[in-house]
């Protein structure tokens, strides 16, 4: 059986036995416990690098998506309403029942939300009997009740901004 670091010898229960005789498990290599057998440079820690980027420490990370200020890359068209795209890792939010919950977001477990927030209520393209409105989307996140530790960690539903649309009154 291959392990992440080095080899792991499986026990031989067929009667042939390992170095200790029949039915005895063969020992691992004689290295220190917890120390990998292969000593390769693992590279930068992706979690630490992401946190340093968020906090503005170190070199900046290249963006994975090109949002190009509300412009569709396929058609060249722009949105009628101005908005700001954010990727957030919330720590507190109100659930579907209106209760405040703590969202599980730690250094080792992140739950990110991609949200688009309206920056203006109207634009020159969205005027008159029309206006920019914020739309919302439900997200299921791992959370806990800060007032009741006995509940433990559970999944709950939370509402976050999803997009900004130009809505008009019916004629």
TrEMBL record:
Cellular component terms (Gene Ontology): extracellular space
A Pfam family: Spaetzle
Domain Spaetzle positions: 80-168
This protein's name: Spaetzle domain-containing protein
Biased composition (Polar residues): 63-75
Molecular-function GO term, any one: growth factor activity
One of the GO biological process terms: innate immune response
InterPro entries: Cystine-knot_cytokine, Spaetzle, Spz/Toll_ligand-like
Assembly, per entry: Homodimer; disulfide-linked.
Keywords: Disulfide bond, Glycoprotein, Signal
Keyword Translocase: no
Alphabetized Gene3D superfamilies for the sequence: Cystine-knot cytokines
Organism this protein belongs to: Callosobruchus maculatus (Southern cowpea weevil)
Positions of region (Disordered): 1-79
Biased composition (Gly residues): 14-23
């Amino acid at each position: 059986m291959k392990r992440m670091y080095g080899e792991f010898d499986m026990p031989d229960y067929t009667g042939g036995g390992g170095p200790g005789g029949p039915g005895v498990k063969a020992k691992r290599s004689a290295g220190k416990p917890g120390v990998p057998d292969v000593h390769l440079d693992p590279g930068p820690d992706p979690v630490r690098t992401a946190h340093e980027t968020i906090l503005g420490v170190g070199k900046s990370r290249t963006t994975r998506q090109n949002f190009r200020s509300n412009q569709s890359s396929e058609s060249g068209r722009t949105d009628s309403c101005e908005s700001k795209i954010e990727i957030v890792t919330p720590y507190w939010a109100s659930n579907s029942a209106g209760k405040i919950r703590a969202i599980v977001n730690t250094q080792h477990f992140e739950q990110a939300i991609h949200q688009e927030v309206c920056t203006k209520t109207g634009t020159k393209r969205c005027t008159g009997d029309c206006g920019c409105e914020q739309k919302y989307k439900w997200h299921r996140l791992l959370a806990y009740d800060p007032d009741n530790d006995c509940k433990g960690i559970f999944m709950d539903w939370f509402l976050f901004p999803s997009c900004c649309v130009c809505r008009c009154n019916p004629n």
